[in-house]
């Protein structure tokens, strides 16, 4: 949520800043800006809307801007103030000599603003960030030391932030700091970098250092100095990033989302690799460091997550309860953190997050940690803030996911939950799950078959793309699939879509049904098949337009459904990992027909670092 990047060195800064912002675009994209130093003067360039608008401004002034060898940049997801040019970062102070970019929320900005206004500061934006610009400038006028000015300012700031600051009186210096928002420093030769996330650095350097909360870093072209908020020098681990420079390429696909949907067979193979070696061998899950005896005796698990990760967690609950007989609670992190939870040292708490940066989930796992619980993190980003809270860490290895709508990371989370549930069942010595293991191994081929018939889904999408609303129904282990299908459709097409347990339909939602309402029934073979069929009949009797997603070949379905999306036969217990793929494609094609911005839907960001 908001991306920041900084460069200081001997090369022109502007291209590095724009490249960095391009790779951070997943964090927000409603406005952007850069600050550079041209002929000894800090200059700001800002644009509302997509990053391309900023690039166009830069292009017109390139000869001037490219002179600067220092700069900071920002891509915004608005929290305080509309996405206008005035509210775009960087922000400056009255004298215009300082520029600051910020990711996070300054919670006490109103109090600070009042105080600063009394001191004569004039505010030009509606943002919380502008208070930081004035505050640091005021500290600088007292200290004439930019690091000290930032340090003193952070003592007064409450909330979450990653900040980068430059000042024209302190040439060749960037000061950056963080609290509850990510920041990573990249080391070059005669140049240094700072950014919200690794993709902004990786084409320039693999040598990096993650900042911890309340650390302040001072970068010059040849040095990186770190102190804590009390001015003590700090030594932080410098590591080699295990990333290859990521060509953010769509590989011939029209959108990243479509490419990422197609990567799912390989994602499944990757997640299984080394962990599920043969159906007669136990699952290898060295990542779970909880003592086996403790695992055997465990009688309570809590899982916290948001959005799509929450849906994966809901499937995880079903599996762990079914295979292992352990009671599992799943809760949105944002709810978990504001109530009294029954969490203690005997509770295993699992945090699930694609980005590992979701503020609500980080707060939830920290709360659980303070109560002595073992923290297991399931994430696609083993280098994230959340991963660093983990006692046990399961990296899901889906590879970088660019599209804001999560697809392959959901698949990787699901498969990780299958492995975890089987692993716990095997440690406990309950249940023979060899059939499921066999099915997991052949799952990638079944997903490939679904992808090979995507034209059928495209046709169905065309037929229903004019709908204003959509209902998804399912029961049992596919209820989360219905929620995920509805979420995907909402996120990228802005159609009002809701997932219901099919049995609940008659308790209220059925009132909405008429000939304008599509109802998609997730009708996978198994113990709830007949029940969902009856619920679908009830919907049909109210004239709803019926779509089936099914592995059944029963010809009678043709009478009931206007459109049938068929997937290969699969056991009910594994069906969520197959059934979600056509739903991702359906959402994709509907959004595409409607001409929506599939990879960067309005109002969203890939990494939600504010509560
Ligand atoms: C997924 O399509 C969404 N963009 C969103 O719901 C996401 O899953 C949620 O914000 C949680 O993110 P996380 O997995 O990175 O924690």
List keywords for this structure.
binds 2-deoxy-2-amino glucitol-6-phosphate, 8-stranded antiparallel β-sheet, 22% strand, alpha/beta, 611 residues, Rossmann fold, Glutamine Phosphoribosylpyrophosphate, subunit 1, domain 1
Describe this structure in words.
By secondary structure, the protein is of the alpha/beta class. It folds into 3 domains: 3-247, 4-Layer Sandwich (Glutamine Phosphoribosylpyrophosphate, subunit 1, domain 1); 249-445, 3-Layer(aba) Sandwich (Rossmann fold), CATH 3.40.50.10490; 453-600, Rossmann fold. Helix content is 36%, strand content 22%. It has 19 helices and 24 strands. Helix 8 (264-272) runs parallel beside helix 13. The protein is globular and about 80 Å long. The model has no long low-confidence stretch (mean pLDDT 94). 2-deoxy-2-amino glucitol-6-phosphate binds at residues 306-309, 353-355, 358, 361, 404-406, 491, 604, 608.
């Amino acid at each position: 949520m908001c991306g920041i990047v900084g460069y200081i060195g001997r090369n022109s800064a502007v291209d590095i800043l724009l490249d960095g912002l391009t790779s951070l675009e997943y964090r927000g994209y409603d406005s952007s800006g850069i600050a550079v130093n041209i002929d000894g003067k800090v200059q700001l360039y800002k644009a509302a809307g997509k990053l391309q608008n900023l690039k166009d401004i830069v292009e017109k002034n390139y000869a001037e801007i490219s002179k600067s060898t220092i700069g900071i940049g920002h891509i915004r997801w608005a929290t305080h103030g509309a996405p206008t040019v005035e509210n775009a970062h960087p922000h400056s102070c009255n004298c215009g000599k300082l520029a600051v970019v910020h990711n996070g929320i300054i919670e006490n900005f109103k109090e600070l603003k009042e105080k600063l206004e009394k001191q004569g500061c004039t505010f030009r934006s509606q943002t919380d960030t502008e208070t930081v610009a004035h505050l640091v400038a005021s500290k600088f006028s007292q200290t004439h030391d930019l690091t000290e000015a930032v340090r003193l300012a952070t003592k007064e700031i409450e909330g979450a932030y990653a900040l980068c600051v430059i000042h024209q009186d302190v040439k060749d210096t960037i000061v950056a700091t963080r609290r509850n928002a990510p920041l990573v420093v990249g080391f070059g030769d005669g140049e240094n970098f700072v950014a919200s996330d690794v993709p902004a650095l990786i084409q320039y350097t693999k040598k990096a250092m993650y900042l911890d909360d309340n650390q302040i870093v001072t970068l010059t072209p040849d040095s990186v100095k770190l102190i804590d908020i009390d001015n003590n020098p700090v030594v932080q681990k410098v590591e080699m990033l295990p990333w290859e420079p990521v060509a953010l390429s769509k590989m011939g696909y029209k959108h990243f989302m479509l490419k990422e949907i197609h990567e799912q067979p390989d994602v499944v193979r990757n997640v299984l690799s080394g962990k599920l070696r043969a159906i007669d061998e136990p699952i290898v899950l060295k990542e779970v460091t909880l003592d086996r005896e403790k695992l055997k005796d465990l009688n309570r698990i809590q899982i916290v997550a948001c959005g799509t990760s929450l849906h994966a967690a809901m499937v995880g609950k079903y599996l762990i309860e079914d295979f292992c007989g352990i009671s599992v609670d799943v809760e949105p992190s944002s709810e978990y953190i504001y109530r009294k939870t029954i969490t203690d040292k005997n509770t295993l708490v699992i945090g699930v997050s694609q980005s590992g940066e979701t503020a609500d989930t980080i707060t939830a796992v920290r709360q659980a940690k303070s109560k002595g619980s073992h923290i297991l993190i399931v994430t696609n980003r083993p280098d994230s803030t959340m991963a660093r809270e983990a006692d046990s860490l399961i990296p899901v290895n889906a590879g970088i996911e660019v599209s804001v709508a999560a697809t392959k990371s959901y698949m990787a989370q699901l498969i990780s939950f299958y492995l975890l549930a089987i692993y716990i069942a095997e440690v406990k010595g309950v249940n023979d799950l060899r059939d499921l293991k066999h099915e997991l191994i052949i799952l990638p081929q079944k997903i490939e078959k679904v992808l090979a018939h995507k034209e059928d889904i495209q046709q169905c999408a065309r037929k229903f793309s004019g709908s204003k609303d959509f209902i998804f129904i399912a029961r049992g282990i596919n209820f989360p699939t219905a929620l995920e299908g509805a979420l995907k459709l909402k996120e990228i097409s802005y159609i009002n879509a809701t997932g219901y347990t099919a049995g609940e339909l008659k308790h209220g939602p059925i009132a909405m049904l008429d000939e304008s309402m599509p109802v998609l029934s997730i009708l996978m073979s198994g113990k709830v098949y007949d029940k969902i069929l009856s619920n679908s009949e009830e919907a049909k009797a109210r004239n709803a337009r019926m779509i089936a997603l099914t592995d059944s070949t029963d010809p009678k379905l043709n009478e009931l459904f206007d459109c049938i999306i068929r997937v290969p036969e699969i056991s009910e217990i594994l069906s969520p990992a197959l059934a979600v793929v056509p739903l991702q494609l359906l959402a994709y094609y509907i959004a595409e027909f409607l001409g929506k911005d599939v990879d960067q839907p309005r109002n969203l960001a890939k990494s939600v670092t504010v509560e």
